[in-house]
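Troubleshooting log. The previous run stalled partway through. Resubmitting the same two chains, unchanged.
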Amino acid sequence: VVAYLSGYVQHRIQHSATCNCRDTLHQVVQIASVIATYARMQQGKEYIAPRTDLSHGANFLYMFKGQEPDPLEGEIMDKCLLLHAEHGFNASTFTSRVVASTLSTCYCSISAAMGALYGSLHGGANEKVVAMIEAIGTVDNVRQWVNDALDRKERIMGMGHRVYEAKDPRSIVMEDYLLKLSEKHNDHRYYEILKEIETVFRERMEEKGKPIYPNVDFYSGAVYLMLGIQPILFTPLFAAGRVSGWLAHILEQRVDNRLFRPRALYSGHEPREYIPIEERT
Amino acid sequence: VVAYLSGYVQHRIQHSATCNCRDTLHQVVQIASVIATYARMQQGKEYIAPRTDLSHGANFLYMFKGQEPDPLEGEIMDKCLLLHAEHGFNASTFTSRVVASTLSTCYCSISAAMGALYGSLHGGANEKVVAMIEAIGTVDNVRQWVNDALDRKERIMGMGHRVYEAKDPRSIVMEDYLLKLSEKHNDHRYYEILKEIETVFRERMEEKGKPIYPNVDFYSGAVYLMLGIQPILFTPLFAAGRVSGWLAHILEQRVDNRLFRPRALYSGHEPREYIPIEERT
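Second attempt completed without errors. Output:
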């Protein structure tokens, strides 16, 4: 899903052979600009130049929609990027550090990190949450749908996180934003469906004694939808937020660099006799 | 150095959103073909279609030069790619596995691995060895040059390896190829300079009790030069060889996948009071 966009971003940032990472803060802004512009062009609209008087998030909405967002929406978009900015040694950040440890450019590191984010175990969960909301349709359908899914041993998207054993603190903020946007638009459908999913899911998990709670992706997709952003842009926006964290990690890696070079333990076959390929059966 | 080429390769392999890794063996061949074709086009020459009756290495030389290499050269080129194919959890391979662990595509994994190979601590050493040979010029200059460099605490390129505490077994094979090519072309300049560097370097290391020996990059650059390959293509050729190892690791990662998600230990400051940016001094 992110491929066509990350591909586009790569074309812009890849082809510089030299790179001074201290000067690369512009990348943080550029990725959001590229996403906004790309989305506009997909709709046959013109590029809009960024403004200097808006926050990063509000600027994205302005460049994306062509009109200044109201202060609440601008602030929420800005905080969404901020909440996605950094999250320790997640797979994409770890990727960026391994690449940086070779003293490769930060363009290569960030491009590699985007490749990791493209993986379905890393990016894309909020898109799937939104698809789940649409599949469920109404709040009255939630209990049956969730119970059926769990009975079939399917995963409920946006639930659980490798690091947290409690509710992801980012999801608490996201839930609050969704509530505010629901009140503003006087439309609580997404909010109510998600809260009901959370309730039913928690009941089932408590029966099994498994503490699994919503992660940042559970509410963020609905927040983006209510900001007028289509699901295909969710993972690119994750990249637009996380790029500041990637860059920070790249800089940290370089301060006291040591090449990542793990040793592998062989756990395969004992030595086997070589059989020429034409003699194999 | 590899950027302009790896960029080119990426354009070819990046833009497929779906990817069945079992079908991607064609990438192994494609990268060498792309390098050969790119190098020809840089010289204003036409694309040459690959042949089915040559080895992978001989085919590269054929597509690169436009005429069939003699059997010795074809075999050496093929073995050079083979010697570079796999080397455990080196930084680029590790990168490819981290990206693969997100269930991203192998295109993203390989693109990320190339980004790691671009780093000066991973790829590019054989180019620097060749530059060192040219800087030294003649075998008579070697002793003085190496002693001066070591006295200035400079690194001698192509020496030492994170994994080996003896001579890199690949460099023994490379040395033999260089000798064979030197005999064939009746030109022992590269060979003699490199052997003299190895001798002087070993003497100095033995004085210090440090066992540091040539790695695969020490002889490979001179081998490539004698095959008619310019230094700018050395790291792309490393990628052309290593891609089969990257793919093998990606496939292995998927067999029993678990997302790479290391935990970080905080080693920074104690909590500090937040000071708004305009109030900082």
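Takeaways: The longest helix of chain B spans residues 234-255. Chain B has twelve helices and no strands.
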